[in-house]
Task: inverse folding
C-alpha cells in the first residue's frame, strides 16, 4: 500500500514537471506569489516560514532549514494544478528542491521549472541559490530563457531549532511556524542569465518565533519599480493538529488573506482564502521517508556503533550529520571533540606510515610498503593514495599474498583463529576477490561469534558480581569479535552506567573514610578503603591511603597481639579470641593470629571435653545442682553444644521435682 502511494506521488511529480506552457508576453510583470495556498495565506512571509519545495522558486536559502524529504502540490479554485515540487535534505550537502509553478498577471501565464539549493554556512548564516527555466508563448512564437535567485538568512541567536525541541510534544509535519527563533532574510529574484527578460526584484523578510507552541510573526518588504510594499503575517498553533495563519499587504484589509493547516505526522493540508481575489486555494504536502527525529536517531546510533568498531572517521561523519538535527546536544559535542582528537591522531600516524612506505618503495622493499599501506587503509578505508599505491604494487604482492594465504590456512587448521582471521582480512583488504579467502573469513566469523558468546557470558558473570571493569572488558572483546552482537552492546552500556554509579559510590565512601581517619577511627577507615578496593581494584587513592595507614595498623596489631598472648597465657580464652579476631579483621592473613586462634579452638575443645565428663558424672550421680553448674561451664566455652544444653535442662527439671516432693512431705 505504501509503495503504491509513493508510486502515485512520483507520477504526479513527473506530470507536474512536464506541464504544457501557456501563451504570454515575455515583458509582462507577473504576480510572483506562486499561487499556492500557504504562499497566499502568509503573503510574502512564506519566504522565511516553514521550508518546503516552493522555496526553490523564491528564497532558496530556506531549503537549508529542511530536515526531511517532502512532496508538495497546489491547486486553484478551478482545481487546476498550479504548483508541484519535491525537496529533500542531506546533512553533508544541505537542502535541494525542484518544482514547477505558474505565474499569472491576470491575462498571461508563465510556466517555470526551478532547481534550488540551500545550506547553513555557519550557526548564524544560511545561503542559497536557484536557477529558473522559464517558457513563454508569444502567440505565434515561444520563448525560453533562464533566470536565477539568491538568498541569505541571518539567524543571530543560533541556527534552526533542534528537532528534539521542535517536536518535543508532537511530531507533526510541515507546521507553518518559523523554523528559526529569530531571523532576517534577503533575496534577489529573477536575476537575468544571458539577456534580460524579467525585471529583477528584491525582498527582505523577518521572522520571530515566540515559543515551541507559540505564534510566529513575519514581516517582509519588497521593491518593484522603486515602489516598495510591505506584508505582515502570523501563524498560530490552535491545537496540536491545526494551525491558523493570515497576512495583510500595506495594511490594506482588502489585500489580506486567511488560511489554515491541518497536520499529521506524514502530511499537511492547507486551505487559504484571499479577500482581494475572493478565491480559495488548496495545498497538500507529504513527508517521504523517515521523520527528522528518526533521521537524527539513526545518525546517532550509527555514529556510536562506528565508534565502538573503532571506525572513528565514519563515526565522526555520522555524528556531524546528527549535529545538523541536534546542534545544541552537549553529549554529542563531547563525542565529536573526542572523535576529532582520535582522527587527528590517526592522520599523524597515516602521514608517518605513508612517508615510511615511500621510503620502502625506493629501497624496493615492496612487502613492507604494502603493509604500511594496509595499516593506512585500516584507519582510513577510503584513502586514495594508499589504494592507488597498492594497485601499483599488486603484481609484486602476489607472492606475499600466496604466502599469507598459506599461513592463514595453517593457522586455521591449528585452531589459531585470531592469526588466521587477520591473515585473511589483510588478503581481502588488498584483493577482495582472492580465491577462498572469503570462504575462510565466513567460517572464522562463525567461530568468532561463538567465542564472542562465551566471553559475553563471562562478562555477564562479572556484571552480576558488580565487577563492572572486567565486565566492560569482556563485552568490548565480544563486540570486537562479533561487531553486530547487539546484546553485548546493550549490556556494555549497562556496565558503563553501573561503573559510573559505582565510581560515585566509591567517591562517597572515600570521603567518609577520610573523615573517619581524621577522627582517628583507623579501623573503620581501613575497612572502608578495603571495601572500595574490593569493588574497584584500580582505585589508587584508596590503595595509597591504606599504605599511609599501615604504620598505625602495625601498631594496632602489635598492641592487640600482646594483649591476646597475655589473655591466652592466663587462660582467658574469650578475651584472647576477641583480641586475635580484631587482628584478623584488619589483616586476614596474619599468621600468628591465625595460629593462636587455632590453639584457642583446641584449648576450648579440651576444656569442653573435661567439663563435659565432669558434668555427666555429676548427672549420673543425681547431683542435680552441681550437674547444672558443670553443664553451664561447658556452655560458657561452647554455647552451641546441644547435648550440654539438653542435659542441663533435664537436671533443672529434676531439681524442680525434688523441691515439690519435699514440700509435699512437710505437709
Result:
Amino acid at each position: 500500500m505504501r509503495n503504491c502511494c509513493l508510486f502515485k506521488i512520483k507520477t504526479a511529480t513527473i506530470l507536474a514537471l512536464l506541464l504544457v506552457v501557456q501563451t504570454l508576453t515575455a515583458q509582462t510583470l507577473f504576480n510572483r506569489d506562486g499561487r499556492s495556498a500557504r504562499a497566499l495565506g502568509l503573503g510574502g512571509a512564506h519566504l522565511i516560514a516553514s521550508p518546503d519545495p516552493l522555496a526553490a522558486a523564491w528564497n532558496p536559502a530556506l531549503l537549508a532549514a529542511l530536515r526531511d524529504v517532502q512532496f508538495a502540490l497546489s491547486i486553484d479554485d478551478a482545481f487546476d494544478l498550479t504548483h508541484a515540487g519535491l525537496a529533500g535534505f542531506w546533512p553533508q550537502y544541505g537542502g535541494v528542491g525542484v518544482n514547477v509553478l505558474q505565474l499569472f498577471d491576470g491575462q498571461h501565464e508563465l510556466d517555470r521549472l526551478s532547481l534550488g539549493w540551500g545550506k547553513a554556512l555557519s550557526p548564524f548564516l544560511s545561503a542559497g541559490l536557484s536557477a529558473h527555466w522559464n517558457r513563454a508563448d508569444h502567440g505565434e512564437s515561444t520563448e525560453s530563457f533562464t533566470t536565477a535567485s539568491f538568498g541569505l538568512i541571518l539567524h543571530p541567536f543560533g541556527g534552526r531549532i533542534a528537532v528534539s525541541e521542535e517536536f518535543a510534544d508532537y511530531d507533526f509535519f510541515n507546521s507553518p511556524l518559523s523554523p528559526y527563533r529569530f531571523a532576517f532574510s534577503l533575496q534577489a529574484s529573477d536575476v537575468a542569465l544571458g539577456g534580460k527578460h524579467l525585471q529583477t526584484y528584491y525582498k527582505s523578510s523577518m521572522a520571530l518565533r515566540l515559543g515551541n507552541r507559540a505564534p510566529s510573526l513575519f514581516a517582509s518588504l519588497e521593491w518593484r519599480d522603486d515602489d516598495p510594499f510591505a506584508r505582515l503575517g502570523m501563524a498560530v498553533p490552535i491545537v496540536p493538529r491545526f494551525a491558523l495563519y493570515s497576512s495583510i499587504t500595506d495594511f490594506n484589509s482588502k489585500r489580506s488573506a486567511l488560511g489554515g493547516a491541518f497536520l499529521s505526522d506524514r502530511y499537511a493540508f492547507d486551505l487559504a482564502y484571499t479577500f482581494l481575489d475572493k478565491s480559495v486555494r488548496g495545498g497538500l504536502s507529504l513527508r517521504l521517508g523517515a521523520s527528522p527525529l528518526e533521521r537524527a536517531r539513526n545518525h546517532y546510533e550509527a555514529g556510536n556503533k562506528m565508534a565502538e568498531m573503532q571506525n572513528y572517521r565514519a563515526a565522526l561523519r555520522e555524528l556531524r550529520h546528527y549535529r545538523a538535527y541536534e546542534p545544541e546536544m552537549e553529549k554529542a559535542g563531547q563525542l565529536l571533540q573526542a572523535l576529532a582528537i582520535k582522527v587527528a591522531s590517526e592522520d599523524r600516524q597515516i602521514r608517518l606510515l605513508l612517508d615510511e612506505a615511500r621510503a620502502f618503495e625506493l629501497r624496493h622493499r615492496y612487502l613492507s610498503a604494502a603493509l604500511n599501506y594496509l595499516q593506512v587503509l585500516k584507519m582510513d578505508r577510503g584513502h586514495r593514495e594508499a589504494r592507488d599505491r597498492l594497485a601499483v604494487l599488486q603484481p609484486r604482492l602476489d607472492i606475499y599474498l600466496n604466502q599469507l594465504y598459506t599461513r592463514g590456512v595453517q593457522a586455521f587448521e591449528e585452531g589459531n583463529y585470531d592469526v588466521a582471521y587477520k591473515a585473511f582480512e589483510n588478503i581481502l583488504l588488498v584483493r577482495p576477490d582472492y580465491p577462498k579467502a572469503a570462504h575462510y573469513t565466513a567460517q572464522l566469523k562463525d567461530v568468532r561469534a561463538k567465542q564472542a558468546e562465551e566471553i559475553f557470558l563471562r562478562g555477564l558473570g562479572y556484571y552480576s558480581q558488580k565487577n563492572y571493569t572486567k565486565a566492560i572488558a569482556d563485552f568490548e572483546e565480544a563486540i570486537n569479535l562479533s561487531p553486530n552482537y547487539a546484546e553485548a552492546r546493550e549490556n556494555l552500556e549497562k556496565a558503563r552506567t553501573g561503573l559510573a554509579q559505582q565510581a560515585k559510590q566509591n567517591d562517597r565512601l572515600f570521603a567518609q573514610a577520610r573523615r573517619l581517619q581524621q577522627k582517628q577511627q583507623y579501623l573503620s577507615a581501613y575497612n572502608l578503603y578495603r571495601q572500595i578496593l574490593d569493588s574497584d581494584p584500580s582505585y589508587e587513592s584508596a590503595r595509597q591511603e591504606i599504605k599511609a595507614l599501615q604504620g598505625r595498623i602495625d601498631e594496632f596489631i602489635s598492641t592487640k597481639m600482646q594483649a591476646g598472648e597475655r589473655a591466652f597465657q592466663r587462660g582467658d580464652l574469650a578475651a584472647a579470641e576477641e583480641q586475635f579476631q580484631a587482628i584478623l579483621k584488619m589483616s586476614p592473613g596474619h599468621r600468628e593470629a591465625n595460629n593462636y586462634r587455632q590453639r584457642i579452638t583446641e584449648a576450648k575443645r579440651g576444656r569442653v571435653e573435661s567439663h563435659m565428663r565432669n558434668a555427666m558424672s555429676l548427672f549420673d550421680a543425681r547431683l542435680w545442682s552441681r550437674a547444672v553448674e558443670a553443664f553451664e561451664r561447658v556452655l560458657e566455652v561452647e554455647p552451641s553444644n546441644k547435648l550440654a544444653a539438653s542435659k542441663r535442662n533435664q537436671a533443672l527439671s529434676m531439681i524442680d521435682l525434688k523441691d515439690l516432693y519435699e514440700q509435699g512431705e512437710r505437709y
About this structure: The first strand starts at residue 69 and ends at 75.
